[in-house]
Specification:
It is a single chain. By secondary structure, the protein is an alpha+beta fold. The chain has two domains: 97 residues, OB fold (Dihydrolipoamide Acetyltransferase, E2P), CATH 2.40.50; 247 residues, 2-Layer Sandwich (BirA Bifunctional Protein, domain 2), CATH 3.30.930. Strand 3 and strand 4 form a beta hairpin. Helix 2 packs across helix 4 and helix 6 packs across helix 7. The longest helix is centred in the middle third of the chain and has 24 residues. 34% of the residues are buried.
């Protein structure tokens, strides 16, 4: 019985007999040999199957292999002369067809998109993003909290907190949400800038090959540096109006105006302090402005996140809780927290799907 080896570890087995398990990428016949590209989720490797080495029934199975069929191949790992990233190929001695896949139509199968090179690159990018998020908040001293606990209340306990997941009523948009005590709107914008910049630089460096597979040139992403442009609502409205996108007086900028601002920059843009009309229920508001901001990705991708300074005055909060969407239990927790040593609290939320769509160059 030979060792089951993942392709990413094949360098550890030079000249040894190994067993690989994975899916067929392609199978190209050349005379009485078959050059088979195999992937297992950790990498891709070429396996050389010959009619001479394989039993007749196994060779017959090899000849009818189709892409995405799952197989088990046993053979010797040999140096391939630097042809591939792994530096090795497999000289097969045995083949087991685990499950045959029907031919995929030329137009592709959208349900199998994740198994295409682009689909796999997108999944790897998402996985790397989740790791980068955890590393950033560990490094900056944010504590991860679960469940439906209001983040502002959790910030009174731990100072700086974050959570991941989908907001209520929007299961398709996973995100990252933060709250920190003793900071205001401007400090929250600074943290949001630093966080987005960190994610962009880490992922554009570590996942450059995946971005290229997604037809996204990672080099321009190097220009995503802090500080990001910050536009107060009135200034943003004036710039958008010059491009023909107008906002109604006393109201936040509409999507078409935000899209105009997004197209005019090479870096994300923060639009802050819009009119109080339409402000999030738990946002602190002044007479002429809501203490909120919107994060716009460049290149026309539009909104990828938002932030706010929370209302923590018990009297003002009690009025706003009626339209907050929080359950009575959550509202009671937050109100009680603010009645005992309330402090300023601000934070932001990044939509992970929106962020990755921009980073990966997907409209």
């Amino acid at each position: 019985m030979f060792t089951h080896v993942y392709i990413q570890n094949i360098r550890q087995y030079p000249g040894r007999q190994v067993t690989l398990k994975g899916w067929v990428v392609s199978a190209q016949p050349v005379g009485e040999a078959l050059f088979l590209e195999l992937r297992d989720g950790t990498g891709t490797i070429r396996c050389i199957l010959t009619k001479k080495e394989l039993p007749a029934d196994q060779w017959a199975a090899a000849e009818r292999l189709t892409p995405e069929s799952s197989v088990k191949i046993t053979g010797k790992a040999v140096d391939d002369g630097g042809r591939s990233a792994s530096g090795h190929e497999i000289r097969a001695q045995a083949l087991e067809l685990i499950a045959e896949a029907p031919p995929i139509p030329a137009s592709g199968n959208p349900r199998l998109w994740t198994r295409t090179p682009e689909g796999r690159a997108a999944l790897r990018l998402r996985n790397a993003a989740h790791k980068a998020v955890t590393d950033y908040f560990d490094w900056t001293g944010f504590a991860h909290v679960d469940g439906t606990e209001p983040l502002a209340a959790a910030a009174f306990a731990l100072g700086k907190v974050y959570r991941t997941g989908a907001p209520a009523g929007c299961p398709q948009e996973s995100g990252i949400e933060t709250a920190a005590a003793f900071i205001g709107l401007d400090e929250a914008m600074a943290v949001a800038e630093d966080f987005v910049s960190y994610l962009v630089h880490r992922l554009s460096t570590e996942q450059a090959d995946d971005l290229r597979t997604l037809r996204r040139n990672p080099v321009p992403l190097n220009f995503v540096k802090t500080p990001f442009p910050r536009l107060e609502h009135g200034e943003a409205a004036a710039l958008a109006a010059k491009e023909g996108a107008k906002a109604k007086a006393g109201e936040p900028l509409p999507p078409d105006a935000l899209a105009v601002l997004s197209r005019k920059h090479e870096r994300p843009v923060l639009v802050h302090r819009p009119p109080p009309a339409g402000a999030p229920a738990l946002a602190r508001t002044l007479k002429d402005a809501a203490l909120t901001f919107t994060i716009l990705a460049p290149e026309g991708y539009g909104t990828i996140g938002s932030g706010l300074e929370h209302e923590t005055d018990p009297a003002g909060l009690e009025r706003r809780l009626k339209s907050s969407g929080l359950s009575p239990e959550q509202a009671a927790v937050l109100l009680e927290a603010c009645r005992h040593g309330a402090a300023p609290v601000a934070g932001f939320r990044i939509g992970l799907e929106s962020f990755l769509a921009w980073l990966g160059g997907r409209a």
